[in-house]
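Supplementary Note 2. Why include the ligand at all?

Several targets in our set were suspected to adopt different conformations when bound, so apo predictions alone were not considered sufficient. For every target with a known small-molecule partner we therefore ran a joint prediction. The input for nicotinamide-adenine-dinucleotide is given below.
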Amino acid sequence: MTRGDGRATPFHAEGERWYSGTVAMETLPHWINNAPAPASTDRTGDVYNPATGEVQRTVAYSTVADVDAAVRAASEAAVSWRVSSIAKRTRVLFAYRELVERHRDDLAKMLTLEHGKVFSDAQGEVQRGLEVVEFACGLADLTKGMFSENVSTEVDTYSIRQPVGVVAGITPFNFPAMVPMWMYPIAIACGNTFVLKPSERDPSVTNFCATLLKQAGLPDGVFNIVHGDKVAVDRLLEHPDVGAVSFVGSTPIARYIYETGTKHGKRVQALGGAKNHMVVLPDADMELAADAAVGAAYGSAGERCMAISVLVCVGDAADKLLPKIRERIAALKVGNGLDPSSQMGPLITKEHAAKVRGYIDAGVKEGAELLADGRSLVVKDHEKGFFVGPTLFDRVSPTMSIYQDEIFGPVLSTVRVKTYDEAVALIHAHRYANGVAIFTNDGGAARKFQNEIQVGMVGVNVPIPVPMSYYSFGGWKQSLFGDLHIYGRDGVQFYTRNKNVISRWPDPRFRGVDLGFPQNR
Ligand code: NAD
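The joint prediction is reproduced in token form.
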């Protein structure tokens, strides 16, 4: 095993076995009761290395029976896990934190091999996931209830937060390590047991994390993985023993998950897609704005739910900004994510790369001005890789499909508006409201914007305002179905239920039958 920088590093034995780059192709199994659970059918999916276009392994697809086995394991484990002490639960997470830290580069390399993002970006993904593990280590302070003494004579009342039971996570391909870490560390620390259905496109890293959780001392059945597709998801949504579902993915599926899960009586948080705008006022520092726009639009090949995909240039900002962005695009190095000189990697699949090229075709056809065209990019020695180069459009209008739809690729559209108010109205008219940014040197304008903009996460001279682990992440409108955001305090609330207790210790003075409505005395 080598790091992305080519230096040798020891690799966790079980992780090594599943690490596709060093062993003959095998089928990635599910993970139930702290052990690999082989596929029960021959239904599998291919997992590619997007940089080479080659299939590097297959992954088992769950049947209903596989999901039932995982939920059974989680239900059985929940009996003792929910009553284990907070200290014991968080001690496991402290140990897990150390293991993830130690294997950060191994995890990052797996991410690069299956997702395609460049190694340094993958390291960043592991780091941001780790921060949620660290947050969960401090759970003792976050689940404290309330207590009121003598609400009536010698009567006390208090509230406690208790785990939901078995909870499920369904996650997307674009952050295969971090997004599950938004969920399971907090859920597990709160005393729940977990069944994860990761993306079938880049699933290996979650099995490796499962081996680390086991090594950290997590009891059997507390964390389980079922791989696969809609069959697995639908069973989780209807299973009577699953109490809550966290979902992150595209908006059509998020809506489906929310509607189906709630119909089956579960609490659901379903985070969806995005179309993030970056407003540039004419007084902005254009060098800073150009660096930020290029990083946020083309980092991870635009496959981030917080990627900037629309520049909203006010007044003459576009004339000052776009030449600087073009200069930076011309210098970008696209290639295999394991090559330390690469700044941007491939897209996740051949089909997705074709879809992104199709959007660029549509933008040209609908009359937008193409300033940089990534359609014909070929990376040397990686001719079969799923690459699309950085693409920049100017004079995009709000009716065009490149403006309306989430492309999820390295395509940045520029809309020119005359005033700040027009910029705000444009953003408010869009159905997505995940993240947004404003670039300006005017503190008053920035404050007005952060106050009035109808979007869940706002950056001021910061293009990708992903909240820290001790805040919570989530968009508004069609970027989130449900009322609680993910991780942070909202996460604790989502994975726990409130219970209120009123208690009186028998006192001889208050004995005797009383049919009256209880009153405060
Ligand atoms: P996706 O919606 O296709 O898949 C997400 C999960 O749902 C996967 O586990 C997949 O197996 C499952 N799934 C797919 N189709 C299904 C169906 N018909 N029925 C049941 N389950 C199904 O999303 P993706 O392509 O993996 O990820 C990219 C999307 O995720 C983008 O839209 C991106 O904006 C979004 N995303 C959002 C956030 C956020 O926090 N809002 C974060 C990351 C990604």
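The chain has a mean pLDDT of 94. DSSP finds 17 helices and 23 strands in the chain. Comparable summaries for the other entries are listed in the accompanying table.
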